[in-house]
Amino acid sequence: QKEVEQDPGPLSVPEGAIVSLNCTYSNSAFQYFMWYRQYSRKGPELLMYTYSSGNKEDGRFTAQVDKSSKYISLFIRDSQPSDSATYLCAMSASSNSGYALNFGKGTSLLVTP
Amino acid sequence: GAVVSQHPSRVICKSGTSVKIECRSLDFQATTMFWYRQFPKQSLMLMATSNEGSKATYEQGVEKDKFLINHASLTLSTLTVTSAHPEDSSFYICSARGQGGYGYTFGSGTRLTVV
Asked: Do the strands B10-13 and B110-114 form a parallel or antiparallel pair, or are they unpaired?
């Protein structure tokens, strides 16, 4: 079993819809959770960063972490065509800069006008 | 915010030649840089961890002699694909974490095509 599981999609939604993206993980040592957005043939860009359990909101994006269930989510409100991209969850057991991230496969999202 | 500059963005080379990819942290010092490889519709696969002033740590299955990593300064790490073959064609991305920063910043990636 991979440490981080993420449904690759594709997920297609109409403009304005609420999008829910999810990842599960198996390593209970993970404490730092991130969501990245990756456009085609570009490097990933950091969207959200959370530590431990709880919610974090930034504009149209909300990240949730449930460590008891080993489940994290990213919600996108009022989705726009420009949100069409691949969304990768990532996590780490340490804040030490020497620790690499563990990535999910990424979910491909398409927001149609 | 932290910026990582990666060059070239795209390179086509002949089979048997070597290609060097550079990653620079522009506004922070990166003690550690990570090199990833990504195949189409696949996740990022960690290849190696590059530490300034010391040898890189390679993930299992990654050939050290094929993928040479140098991290001579706190702002520059290079990945050289030696004797490239068509199966080395992929998207290579570096990343680093700034001191005191949150999350990891990625370079824009290098699309390598070996013909």
From this structure: parallel
